[in-house]
Design brief:
With 242 residues, the protein is α+β, with helices and mostly antiparallel strands. The protein has two domains: 75 residues, Orthogonal Bundle (Arc Repressor Mutant, subunit A); 158 residues, 3-Layer(aba) Sandwich (Chorismate lyase). It contains eight helices and ten strands. It is elongated, with a radius of gyration of 21 Å. The two termini are 39 Å apart. About 2% of the residues have low confidence.
Length: 242
């Protein structure tokens, strides 16, 4: 709920701007988590002592800046874009913890396949060699932000399908098998519209773009994971951090 002192607004700014800044301050202070719904206009207007039209203007400005997502008939939700670094040593867990968010991953499927020519080339293994596949949904403090597919050489992760039932970050799998200092050796980013299944998994409209990030993780220059992650572009901004 909004702080009781939030009605003490700055008189030298337009009312809608004052309200915009006060709501932003509350979000930054942790009063509302990413994905959480704000109080309705009928609550915010009397709280700030203004009309619903003024509140609506403030919320619209926050939406334009990527802080909120307004859904017709449902209300306004905190949607501050997560800054996701793609450095050589960065990971899903580290990125979200740096943003004071709780990382979590749900395993949708796990299975073993024979390496196709493309996967074999990326992992530098013979065509047909067994590869472990993990399909996951990544979440930040409960908000779905990505769907990913990881390809791991089976010989480097013996018995992984039986041993692993859950994890909050694929880095936990690496460490379970003794791979502590992994590095991102390759990264390719492409923006596109999602498939119906991707949009459903990401809980977003098909008309909103996604960011597809193809990465290769290595340990001592040996490839251990070729992944394809699809991020909701409305919720995540990616950048290179060397």
């Amino acid at each position: 709920m909004l702080n009781e002192t939030s009605h003490e607004l700055m008189n030298d700014l337009p009312r809608w701007r004052q309200i915009e800044l006060m709501i932003l301050k509350e979000i930054d202070a942790g009063a509302f988590r990413v994905g959480e719904k704000l109080p309705g206009e009928n609550i915010l207007a009397p709280h700030f002592g203004v009309t619903r039209t003024t509140v609506r203007r403030a919320l619209a400005e926050l939406q334009n800046k990527g802080v909120l997502r307004i859904e017709r008939g449902r209300g306004a939700f905190v949607e501050r874009r997560i800054q996701y670094g793609l450095g050589a040593e960065s990971s899903f867990m580290a990125n979200l913890r740096d943003a004071s968010l709780v990382p979590a991953a749900e395993i949708l499927a796990k299975f073993e396949v024979s390496a196709s020519t493309d996967i074999a080339n990326r992992l530098q293994i013979p065509v047909g060699e067994p590869v472990l596949v993990f399909d996951t949904v990544g979440k930040a403090s409960g908000l779905t932000i990505s769907v990913s597919r990881h390809h791991l050489p089976s010989r480097l992760f013996p018995g992984a399908l039986e041993r692993i039932s859950s994890f909050s970050c694929i880095t936990e799998v690496y460490r379970l098998f003794g791979y502590e200092n992994t590095r991102r050796a390759h990264c390719h980013i492409e923006a596109r519209l999602p498939s119906s299944e991707e949009a459903r998994r990401l809980q977003q409209p098909r008309t909103e773009p996604i960011l597809e990030v193809q990465s290769l993780k290595t340990i001592d220059q040996t490839p251990i994971d070729y992944s394809v992650a699809r991020f909701s572009a409305a919720r995540v901004s990616v950048y290179f951090d060397n």
